[in-house]
Amino acid sequence: MNVPEVLKEIRDTWIHRVANSMARGAGVRENFQGQLERFYSLLVQAIETGDPAWVDPILYDWSASPTQSDLREGEKNISAVLNRMLMITYELVREDLTEQEAMDTLGSILPVFTYALDKAARYEMETRVAYIANELTGVQSKLERLDRSKSSFISVAAHELKTPLTLIEGYTAMMNEATKNNSSAQMDSLIEGINNGIRRLRTIVDDMIDVSLIDNNLMSLNFQPLWLFKLFNLVRNELIVSVVSRKQTLELRPFPGNDQMLFGDSERLYQAFRNLLSNAIKYTPDGGSIILDGRTLPGFIEVTIADTGIGISPEDQETIFEKFSQLGNASLHSSGKTKFKGGGPGLGLPIARGIIEAHGGTIWVESDGHDEKRCPGSTFHVLLPIRTEPPDPKFAKLFGVETKSDH
Ligand code: ADP
Question: Ligand 1 within 6 A of 348 CB?
Answer without folding.
Answer: yes
